[in-house]
Amino acid sequence: MKEYTLLLFLALCSAKSLTGPSYFTLKNMMLQDMEDDDDDDDDNSLFPTTEPILPLIPFDLFPTCPFGCQCYVRVVHCSDLGLTSIPRNIPPDTRMIDLQNNKIKEVKENDLQGLTSLYALALNNNKIYKIHPKAFQPTKRLRRLYLSHNQLTEIPTNLPRTLAELRIHANKVKKIPKDVFKGMKSLHVLDLPSSLLELHLDDNKITGIELEDFNRYKDLQRLGLGNNKIKEVENGSFANIPSIREIHLEKNKLKKVPPGLPELKYLQVVFLHSNHIAKLGVNDFCPMGRRKKKALYSGISLFNNPVKYWEVQPSTFRCILARNSVQLGNFLK
């Protein structure tokens, strides 16, 4: 018993200071996140308060912590170590892994093997250019994923459907695959690269578009928001994407044509079918007066809306490429 007490005392005396800003910034963020998840079971707590006193000591008496890292209760802190790969020997009950500010180039298939309780993974500010399609398969509870400031050219495929927050700005991503976010029920933060040319958020549960939603994506040319629950588009929202060519808003709950379409000089295709639009204004699509669009509409779909097509003024579609560019039709019950 004396030998154990002496070992414990020596370890406490030699423990590293815990004042590193990156650790406490991330830890405080995770604590705040966990407060929002009060409905989870007790075992889902990132920093449980019911653990025995001994495991709360900020070091590991046993060799279960990756070399050079600091391991706490369910937290593995490995930032700023110059690591070139995700370390092995991460405890299987880990809830958070901090790997920011390293030189990791790749997330391999088995790097996260066995980490079924992982809640948050910070890989920002590395050199990651490749993530294996099955890399996140072992993670059954992952909610926070930070991949900002890397060298990714595409959004990782097969993201966990439990994901609630994804940060991936400051990469080289130009296009997002159509189904990459499909099935996610609570993805509420989407910090994407500002260089995006295409953004596909179809088949989700988005309920509205606000003014600031697209203010970072000036170069966006194609926007997919079909099959959501969008009821309203705030006026001015599309002014932040002046280069947009194609907008998909079909299969939503819109009651009117979204404002701002006439100001989009390059917009050619807009899908609005299967909504609740009952009336079309003469200036809903085309600029007023002598102003002209630089690109005429080649496709406007409005079928399966309660529009009385015989009441629509012909000048409503004065800026289309040809008569067959508009699909109006009848509203089908």
Question: Briefly, what is this?
Answer:
The chain has 333 residues and is mostly beta strands. Helix content is 8%, strand content 14%. The N and C termini lie far apart (80 Å).
How would the global form be characterised? elongated
User: In what order do the strands lie side by side in the largest sheet?
Assistant: 1-2-3-5-7-8-9
- Distance N terminus to C terminus? 80 Å
- How would you classify the helix and strand content by structural class? mainly beta
The biggest sheet, with number of strands, parallel, antiparallel or mixed sense and barrel status, is: 7 strands, mixed
Q: Mean of residue pLDDT?
A: 79
CATH homologous superfamily annotation of the largest domain = Ribonuclease Inhibitor
Number of helices: 2
The helicity comes to under 10%
| Secondary-structure element order, N to C | HHEEEEEEEEEEEEEEEEE
CATH architecture descriptor of the largest domain:
Alpha-Beta Horseshoe
**CATH topology description of the largest domain:** Leucine-rich repeat, LRR (right-handed beta-alpha superhelix)
User: Can you count the beta strands?
Assistant: 17
What is the CATH C level class of the largest domain, in words? Alpha Beta
